[in-house]
Amino acid sequence: MAPGTGDLVVLAIGGNSLIRDERHRSVPDQWALTRETCHHVAQIVAAGHRVVITHGNGPQVGFILRRSELASHELHEVPLDSCDADTQGAIGYMIQQSLANEFRRRGMARSAVSVVTQVEVDPASPEFKRPSKPIGSPMDEATARARSAKGGWPIAEDAGRGWRRVVPSPEPVAIIELSAIRTLIEAGFVVTAVGGGGIPVVRDAVGDYRGIEAVIDKDLATSLLACDLAADHLVISTSVRRVCLDFGRSTQRELDRLTLAEARRYLADGQFGRGSMAPKIDAAIRFLSRGGRRVVITCPDEIEDAVEGRAGTLVEG
């Protein structure tokens, strides 16, 4: 299997690429949207680029946690690191099968593979002292406090949507399976890795890894992967066609281009939502600051045009 000869593209597929809205959350719905997204990914591969895919898993982890809660009177509950591993496998399966079918239809001798990926975090990170990442289903306050007392985990109100469990969100430090990912790329595979930001792990006193109850931001983990692989392009797929200033206001305007300096300034000024666009801009800044060539932020339908510079918001140094 001959690898592509073009630039290396690390493509982050956002949650909207797998779940369109609240009415389309079933597994068949996710399959349909994955096939649609993979059609665009195959276009990039057909153009000769080498491609590594990362993806979100927030809704899917939430579904597993909710099922676990509902079945807790009969079965053991599923720890968060296992939820990450389960969703990496399930979503990777959907992506690699959808890509394989696309490649076959196009007569392309290419294969896709998924890597269940661990990402090391620092156990001394201050994030462990201030858990802030909401996970699982929203609850009323009384239910949340009862669940917190039973499970021993912290809770917080989530922007008027109810009370939810919160966990730490430490910085990604190292991608454990990096050498395997690199070897697969060199062998010509389209690789899916670091799903959901990776399974967070720490080293114990003797140097062994163990999983922890935490969530790594998928955009920051994707940026780390792109840096470690010396990728040429980082493409971040999200729910909007372009990055906007004054998002949601009457003065909202789309941006075709951003310099690294502008990205830093707008991020510092609070122009981007903390749980939405801000991590993507932060990921772009980190990638470019470590030698990356270009970042494009766009919606799933336009990713192949974004790679060729015809769509999305281009962020350059």
Task: Present the secondary structure layout.
Elements: E1 8-13, H1 27-46, E2 50-55, H2 58-70, H3 80-106, E3 112-114, E4 118-121, E5 133-139, H4 141-151, E6 155-157, E7 163-167, E8 172-175, H5 178-186, E9 190-192, E10 199-203, E11 209-211, H6 218-228, E12 233-237, E13 244-245, E14 253-254, E15 257-259, H7 260-268, H8 277-289, E16 294-298, H9 303-307, E17 313-316
Parallel strand pairs: 1-2, 1-12, 2-9, 3-9, 4-10, 12-16, 15-17
Antiparallel strand pairs: 4-8, 5-7, 6-7, 10-11, 13-14, 16-17
Helix pairs in contact: 1-3, 2-3, 6-8, 7-8
Report on the structure:
With 317 residues, the protein is of the alpha/beta class. The protein has 9 helices and 17 strands. It folds into 2 domains: 8-122 and 173-316, Carbamate kinase (3-Layer(aba) Sandwich), CATH 3.40.1160; 131-167, no CATH class. The protein has an 8-stranded mixed β-sheet with strand order 3-9-2-1-12-16-17-15, sandwiched between helices. A 4-stranded mixed β-sheet has the order 8-4-10-11. Strands 5-7-6 form a 3-stranded antiparallel β-sheet. Helix 1 (27-46) crosses helix 3 (80-106), helix 2 (58-70) packs across helix 3 and helix 7 (260-268) runs antiparallel to helix 8. The protein is globular. The chain starts with 7 loop residues before the first strand and ends with a strand.
- The CATH class name of the largest domain reads Alpha Beta
Total number of strands: 17
Compute the CA-based radius of gyration. Answer: 19 Å
Mean pLDDT: 92
Give me the CATH fold name of the largest domain: Carbamate kinase
**What best-fitting shape do the alpha-carbon axes yield?**
globular
Number of helices: 9
CATH superfamily of the largest domain: Acetylglutamate kinase-like
The overall number of domains is 2
Strand order of the largest sheet: 3-9-2-1-12-16-17-15
Helix coverage percent of residues? 25-40%
Structural class: alpha/beta
Distance between the termini: 35 Å
Which H/E pattern describes the elements? EHEHHEEEHEEEHEEEHEEEEHHEHE
CATH architecture annotation name of the largest domain: 3-Layer(aba) Sandwich
Biggest sheet record: 8 strands, mixed
Quaternary structure of the protein: single chain
Low-confidence stretches: none
Question: Which percent band covers the strand fraction?
Answer: 15-25%
